[in-house]
Amino acid sequence: MATTLNDILLPVETVSRELDGKLLLALFAAEAGFRSHIGVMSLIQQPGFPPSIYISKSVRFAKRVQLMRGLGHVIAAWDEEGLARFNDTVHSARIEPEAFNLPSLLFSWGKSNSDLWRRHPSYHGTPIIDVGNPRADLLRSELHPLYAGAVADLRQRFGRFAVFNSNFGIVNHFKTSGRKPKVGARSHDAEAYIAFRRGVEAHKHRLFEAFQQAIPVIARALVPHRLVIRPHPSEDHAAWHRAAAGLENVTVIYEGSVVPWQLAASCLIHNGCTSAVEAAVLRLPALAYRPVVDPEYDIALPNALSENFTAIEELCARARHYLDHPPTRDMHAAYPALLQQNIASLEGPLACERIVAALDGLRQGSVTPPALSERLAAHGQHIYRRLKHRIAHESRRYEQHKSNAGEFTPERIAARAAPMAQALGRFGDLHYAQRGPGVVTISRRA
Questions:
Q1: Those residues with Cβ within 8 angstroms of residue 330's Cβ, 6 or more apart along the chain or in another chain
Q2: For residue 349, how far is the Cα from the chain centroid?
Q3: Structural domains of the chain sorted by starting position, each given as residue range(s) with its CATH number in brackets
Q4: Could you count the other beta carbons within 10 Å of the beta carbon of residue 194?
Q5: What does the alpha-carbon distance between residue 136 and residue 446 come to, in Å, rounded to a whole number?
Q6: Residue 23: which residues within 8 A CB-CB, separation 6 or more?
Q7: Is 416 left (phi over 0), alpha (psi -120 to 50) or beta?
Q8: Percent of residues, the chain, with pLDDT higher than 70
Q9: Helix (H, G, I), strand (E, B) or coil at 146
Q10: How does pLDDT run across 20-61, given as a tens digit for each residue?
């Protein structure tokens, strides 16, 4: 049945990581004539929206994709974790075939991501477009004016500083019950991934302990400069506060987007963190501290784009060098070939522009309504999730920690969009309206 899909659904699971990129995409889509609905993931996934294009952040889990298909939506998807990932065999093992094949379009970060998909045994020819990702757009020099005020504020508050972005949620999770393996029951090889996960946990435990012990050593080496610890959104901050106890030049803080922190910092310290890929785009020196090395469990790309250190003394000396002599960032220098292979949108049209152009092709497409059994299953799943959400206090608290419905009001979203409009010189004729609690609709003014 032919129908016009004028609505786009943009779920946000973690505000600090996803909101700005998806908001930028929503603005481009609204400018192109779509109605962009952006909000808390669980609220975007509720019944009540007209037939829409739902943008899934993952191809790993079938349930959410089946739910949205059962509610009558067309699916397009990218893989939020497809950039900095475990080895390709392990990453492929986590993909559920239905989540992979229900989408009408797949948006890859770049050639490396799309090559992995095309090699997957469950891939059956869904169109793949190398677009980059809205998160990568936020790193482009055109959008650096967004962060000028925040960068100036951070430098005033902290002076010269090194930023350490931790990524130990797998062993230091916000939930006291810990983080369960995120793999679907029907994934390509769930058992292989669960076995791999046990090895990853042991490896991460060793690294986590080594980093906690390293914090005082790094802090003392950087005096009079400062070390800023930014825990991962999924982490319990208490462990880092304990590691920093009594260290006057260490601040543990989880505040805002990572981009202004990287623009304000003199160097980044990490281990296998996506922030090192972002740092490479921003020309920020990235230092990978690798006291324990295991090629099977280490995430390759961030470390490959960094200076690597196994000895803490050498890491400290290099960080101190960058703090004493902050490098000049040449934003016009050519990017490394490895980075270009992994992110398609470093130059030329923004990822958001490429995505909207592709979605425009779906707008007038033929949509097959879901069968009655699919619709009933979707509504049943929705009811089950609502009941579970009410009962599971810890899960509800974790969701609120990541994405609070109060962030999604017309006033707040419009205020967040204003610097984007100013930086790019567009989006001036858009309207912001409350669709419901935790969901804002952006559209062209009538």
A1: 283
A2: 20
A3: 7-137+345-444 (3.40.50), 146-335 (3.40.50.2000)
A4: 13
A5: 31
A6: 38, 413, 416, 417, 420
A7: alpha
A8: 88
A9: helix
A10: 999 999 999 999 999 999 999 999 999 999 999 999 999 888
- The CA distance from 178 to 157, in Å, is 34
What pTM did the predictor assign? 0.89
Burial of 292 (C-beta count, 10 Å sphere; 0-12/13-18/19+) = middle
Sign of CA dihedral 17, 351, 148, 151: positive
Strand pairing report for 53-56 and 439-444: unpaired
Neighbour count for residue 165 (Cβ, 10 Å): 25
Distance CA 376, CA 396 (A): 25
Per DSSP, what are the bridge partners of residue 157?
none
Residue 214, sorted as left (phi over 0), alpha (psi -120 to 50) or beta, turns out to be: alpha
Q: Is 260 left (phi over 0), alpha (psi -120 to 50) or beta?
A: alpha
- Residues 389 and 397: their CA atoms lie apart, in Å, by 10
Burial of 159 (0-12, 13-18, 19+ CB in 10 A): middle
Residue whose C-alpha is closest to residue 444's, from 350, 332, 433: 433
Side chain identity at residue 34, one-letter code: F
Model pLDDT, residue 398:
47
User: What does DSSP assign to residue 141?
Assistant: G
Kind and range of the H or E run holding 138: none
Cα–Cα separations (whole angstroms), residue 321 to 99, 137, 160, 179, 285: 47, 30, 12, 37, 11
Measured between alpha carbons, how far is 111 from 416 in angstroms, rounded to an integer?
32
If we measure between CA atoms, which residue out of 251, 240, 239, 301 comes closest to residue 84? Answer: 301
Q: In sequence order, which residues have a C-beta less than 8 Å from that of residue 311 and are 6 or more positions away?
A: none
Q: Are 31 and 430 in contact (CB under 8 A)?
A: yes
Q: How many CA atoms lie within 13 A of 211 on its CB side?
A: 25
**CA gap 403, 415 in Å, rounded:** 18
Alpha-carbon span 444 to 33, nearest angstrom: 6
Contact 387, 59 (CB under 8 A): no
Give residue 47's identity as a one-letter amino acid code: P
- Segment of 11-15, 99-103, 159-163, 391-395 carrying the highest mean pLDDT: 159-163
155 burial level (CB within 10 Å; 0-12, 13-18, 19+): middle
pLDDT tens readout for residues 250-301:
999 999 899 999 999 999 999 999 999 999 999 999 999 999 999 999 999 9
Burial of 78 (0-12, 13-18, 19+ CB in 10 A): buried
CA proximity to 207, closest of 307, 275, 294, 280: 294
